[in-house]
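Kindly review this protein for my students:
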Amino acid sequence: MSKESKLPKLFSGSVDELTRPSKPKVRKTKEGLKAQKKQKTLYVSLDMNRKLIELYAEEGRRQSVIVEDAVNLYYYLRLALGEKKFDELMSAVRREEPEFLRQYLERLRV
């Protein structure tokens, strides 16, 4: 290939070139939209980032998959437990004591 074909065409300054319609936009299929990235940035605390890194190392999965699983878990627990029970569960989680959470979940099953 010659170098001339790789160089971009320079603007000649003609009115015709300025008023030429742009290229038509390509429409995306519904399947492509489902997997499309919806959020550009997810802001997390340093502690949350440490936990994500630890989960990533243990499970060998992408962080986006881990976050998606966490959101699904949060959403469906909230629907299943109701507002009051869900708030109690979240307060148990915020204590960041795995043994306390284990005991709480055992009591919740009854």
